[in-house]
Design a protein that fits this description.
With 107 residues, the protein is α+β, with helices and mostly antiparallel strands. 32% of the residues lie in helices and 16% in strands. It has helices spanning 14-26, 40-49, 69-79; strands spanning 5-9, 31-34, 58-61, 64-67.
Length: 107
Amino acid sequence: MTPVLALYGHPFSSYTWKAQIAFHAAGVNYEFREVGPDQPANGEFLVSHAGPWGKFPVLVDGEQVLFEATVIIEHLASTMRRRPDCCRAIPLPPCRCACSTGCSTIT
């Protein structure tokens, strides 16, 4: 069974949207856990796991807990190999090898 990815965030947060867009673009399933007054347990989780600044979104991937949208997107791009270049927050340089497949090999 594939471990469930849990994304904590608020539906009005543009940073949460940024991470969610990457998940949808990569075709990766995840569980969204809304942070708000109606979900106090999710807020309590963030207090103890959202880093020293209390930022969200927060991603739980097995034993790993990551916070901030760009970090989450880079983690997604480096660990989910379905379409690895579709959701990179930091684009890879263009391919410079002779394969002409866009492999991003730097020579």
